[in-house]
Write a structure and sequence with these properties.
By secondary structure, the chain is mainly alpha-helical. It is 68% helix and 3% strand. A two-stranded parallel sheet has the order 1-2.
Length: 219
């Protein structure tokens, strides 16, 4: 994520090349995705701060030039322990819900607490709520100057929940159909970008107001 973002913000010419299938050591996401997610999301939020001047006024994405044979290759199957993933979500929500109520909007908190009560078969977290959760967390990360890694840590159970919801949503789809769904979700993130900018500015202003008040008290 660092290399891609740096290339985009550096105004380099960007393209993509089809290199065939990248074969990973297939692992159950309920066991292996947590550390990777924390690394990626922490890097992403830091890059958002550093490159705010670049991204905040961009309105839409555009396709880039592609080289090579652009054909879909079926990935290898991965066994997923869905029950364990949802259990990690539930345990994390129980642990962090007081913090969630402080930093997330009531709409997000309601979605999180509702999902916690759902059965495995009916488990779901809506895309719209997930967009709000990520945007509100990014804005909180930006406004906080201390204990930021705690924010990233408490996000991990919500990520497990969203992955579980995606698995439930796509379990009857082909891999190609699931890829199309991912693209459609990316468009939804774009279309709600105005909310990111507004909550980014709002939380920053609130943080500055609190800091100003604390300085007056100490003086």
């Amino acid at each position: 994520i660092w290399m891609t973002t740096t290339a985009l913000c550096g105004d380099y010419r960007v393209c993509q090349a089809f290199l065939g299938a990248k074969i990973h050591d297939a692992k159950d996401p309920s066991e292996s995705l947590g550390p990777m997610f924390r690394q990626v999301i922490g890097t992403l939020f830091t890059l958002m701060e550093q490159n705010e001047w670049y991204w905040r006024n961009i309105k839409e994405s555009v396709a880039v030039e592609t080289f090579g044979r652009d054909e879909f290759i079926e990935p290898e199957p991965i066994a997923v322990n869905l029950e364990r993933m949802i259990e990690k979500f539930r345990f994390g929500v129980k642990q962090f819900v007081p913090l969630y109520r402080q930093i997330f909007s009531p709409e997000c908190v309601k979605e999180i607490e509702t999902a916690r009560k759902l059965s495995v078969k009916r488990f779901s977290i809506s895309l719209y709520a997930w967009i709000l959760i990520l945007y509100e967390l990014a804005a909180t990360f930006h406004s906080w100057k201390f204990n930021r890694m705690k924010l990233v840590e408490m996000m991990t159970p919500l990520y497990y929940g969203r992955v579980a919801a995606f698995i439930n949503q796509t379990k009857k789809m082909s891999s190609w159909e699931a890829e199309r769904l991912v693209e459609e979700q990316a468009v939804e993130f774009e279309e709600n970008k105005d909310y990111l900018v507004s909550i980014w500015d709002k939380k920053k202003a609130e943080s500055e107001e609190i800091n100003h008040h604390l300085k007056r008290i100490t003086i």
